Amino acid sequence: SSLNFYFFVYYRNQKEQCGRLECMPNQKPKNILLCPLEYGLDLFGGKWKCRVLCVLGMNGPMRFSALSRELDNITDATLNTVLKEMVTEEMVCRIVYDEQPLRVEYSLTEKAQSALPILQNICGWSKTYADVDTKNVLSPCRSCIHLCKTAEGTI
């Protein structure tokens, strides 16, 4: 009907104006234009990415098993997926050593290291306002404690 046609044209024009490309449901668009804030939130989004950044920032290069032990309650499959995403996003460097047995280490890239002060500021901000805004008491992880202490020294 003509109403459906006008809705389609309106919808298409709105998508073109905001610079987004259409994708199928349950598929991540390949060529989507994000504002800088969306880009940053996408890099740090999810439950585990910031935690991985904090742990690697605190400990330096780590093997998969050590990283898994440091991050409580993460499955190997989830950690593997998160690390693959972070390698693709150039936040984590994966180094494979030609040894027997095979050794793989993960470390932060320069791009990720430059984000640590941002996470430190968020940690300090959270400590300031968490008691006011929430009924729950926060219990930071070991890497958070390190990150917040470092933030207190720099703020």
Strand percentage, roughly? 5-15%
Helix count, per DSSP? 8
Total count of strands = 3
Write down the overall mean pLDDT.
76
Radius of gyration: 20 Å
**Strand numbers in spatial order across the main sheet:** 1-3-2
The profile of the biggest β sheet is: 3 strands, antiparallel
Distance between the termini: 61 Å
Instruction: Spell out the helices and strands N to C.
Output: HHHEHHEEHHH
Structural class: mainly alpha
Spatial shape: globular
List the helices and strands and how they pair.
Blueprint: H1 2-18, H2 36-44, H3 49-59, E1 62-63, H4 64-70, H5 76-88, E2 92-97, E3 103-108, H6 110-113, H7 116-133, H8 142-154
Antiparallel strand pairs: 1-3, 2-3
Helix pairs in contact: 3-8, 7-8
Characterization of the model:
The model is unreliable at 1-27 (pLDDT under 50). It is built from eight helices and three strands. The protein is globular, with a radius of gyration of 20 Å. Helix 3 (49-59) packs across helix 8 (142-154) and helix 7 packs across helix 8 (142-154). It has helices spanning 2-18, 36-44, 49-59, 64-70, 76-88, 110-113, 116-133, 142-154, and strands spanning 62-63, 92-97, 103-108. By secondary structure, the chain is mostly helical.
Short summary of the structure?
By secondary structure, the chain is mostly helical.
List descriptors:
59% helix; 155 residues; three-stranded antiparallel sheet; mainly alpha
